[in-house]
Amino acid sequence: MYYSNGNYEAFARPKKPAGVDGKSAYIIGTGLAALSAACYLVRDAQMPGKNIHIFEKDPVAGGACDGAEIPGLGYVMRGGREMDNHFEVMWDLFRSIPSIETPGVSVLDEYYWLNKEDPNYSLCRATKDLGKDAETNGKFGLSDKASMEIMKLFFMPDEDLYDKPITDFFDDEVLNSNFWMYWRTMFAFENWHSALEMKLYIKRYIHHIGGLPDFSALRFTRYNQYESMILPMVKYLESNGVQFHYNTKVDNVEFAIGGGDGPKREHTGVGQDTILKIQATSGVFKRNPYSTLTKKIAVRIDLDHEGDKSSIDLTPDDYVFITNGGCVENSTMGSQHAPAPWNPDIKPGGGWDMWRRIAKQDPSFGHPDTFCSDPQATKWMSATVTTLDKEIPPYIQRICKRDPFTGHVVTGGIVTVTDSNWLMSWTLNRQQQFRDQPKDQLCVWVYGLFPDKPGNYVKKPMTECTGEEICAEWLYHMGVPTDKIEALAKSHANTVPVMMPYITAFFMPRAAGDRPDVVPDGAVNFAFLGQFAETPRDTIFTTEYSMRTGMEAVYTLLDVDRGVPEVWGSVYDVRNLLNATVKLRDGKPVTDMKLNFVERAVLGKILKKLDGTDIATLLREYHVI
């Protein structure tokens, strides 16, 4: 497996790997990573669909990418997904997945046309004082000192960030800024989360810094994530004969370890760009420090189908793709009249327990308890509010400044309530969010980063609130008159709260080796998938990360001779770096920084040397000087 970029590799079709017709695949989970692996097995590895088996513990596919009308509860979306035009693997795959709405076009075609015709941007990023615009005015509000703290983190070696929280590197100069409000609410970062992941995020999305305040950097699907992404993938796989096994838990995967060295796989390919080959061979993409070349073979899968336990014995020609861990494990739902229960206990058949059993078998298989041992630090809550008539929508329209019933962009991303005790944010994507949703209803997604604090109106922690009470808190912060709140929350909306104990588990401070490599050194017939598998440069809590692990796993194990698109290289593009530097400073050139006499004299001499060169032209083009 090797990384590539450009059309030469992107448009090529790989040859069928030798002997693939006699091989089989067993995939654990049906989240984006697992379904992507299955799609790449079908499309690029050209494995017969009947040889591919997918195990899912729930009765429906999708993992964290859900969206459903649940009888007796109502419409529920545990979360949402924000996409980027440089999700290279995602678009590589979705160009081949047929639309389930429009014959003859792909999911990518639909998505591309939609976001061209209806581009995303927010007209109100934040509110305060009961629904008034917080007037952030698209500004980050960073002082020179805060800007330098961010820049220092940007250039710091990964090793210096292992097991350290963000607060070791940012003080109140950053943490009290608009920048941090934008950032933490968009990506769900807490102050105690990983400084390493914070750095990776800044580097990964350096090309979108200017689009953070108004979300113009983002793109969204037409419907909820299940109907827009998961369902087309499932239909594609089913049409190719792939076997789905629902209500089937995987308790464990047993490995045989030893007996010499395992495969020695090259990490470069003959089609590879020179720069990418240097990157791959230089050691900059570090392997798991616990790795050894000792042969590791998956030999058995232990299953539990609705209480009926069985095992599958494996040969080296049976490939196993393991979704280890899970951000929505142990999620619970409340209702309009009941809070969501707190249930963090890890039990057999779930992603965390399975990973613990697997990790005991070899040190290179990761350290799950780095991520799942403190659910109080990894939880937050969301709620889906369904408005039932025309009573609540005018208050929404007053804030987002758009008619929410047009089918076009509504809020254009989350609206953060800056003076909410829960640090509440809410959003309406294009409505209706469900294909079968009545045309006079809206689905609103609400979440709180501080669910243990008493609300401003309800005076109870979000964790103790019914759906009706969460709706009341939201209505209060939108500026609904207090004498109308109770009736509107009770009779004009249906709200379903969701508690997710491990939703930000992947953001916990970590070090090298805490996540297993997608294909560990010495692995013969298995790979790890999803948010808790390690792949270089990309960032977790994204659709792209999950899908990338699926592609890398298939290309490595099946020796697919085509490049995996590299993570978009904006961090190596001087134009993006210069633009981001100025955008972070709210458009102020570097020459406006507060410098002492010596610093200003040195800067003056440097600029004089550069005058008349292309470098000076570039600096002026991006308003650095």
TrEMBL record:
<dbReference type="GO" id="GO:0071949">
    <property type="term" value="F:FAD binding"/>
</dbReference>
<keyword id="KW-0456">Lyase</keyword>
<protein>
    <submittedName>
        <fullName>Myosin-cross-reactive antigen</fullName>
        <ecNumber>4.2.1.53</ecNumber>
    </submittedName>
</protein>
<dbReference type="GO" id="GO:0006631">
    <property type="term" value="P:fatty acid metabolic process"/>
</dbReference>
<dbReference type="InterPro" id="IPR036188">
    <property type="entry name" value="FAD/NAD-bd_sf"/>
</dbReference>
<dbReference type="GO" id="GO:0050151">
    <property type="term" value="F:oleate hydratase activity"/>
</dbReference>
<dbReference type="InterPro" id="IPR010354">
    <property type="entry name" value="Oleate_hydratase"/>
</dbReference>
<dbReference type="Pfam" id="PF06100">
    <property type="entry name" value="MCRA"/>
</dbReference>
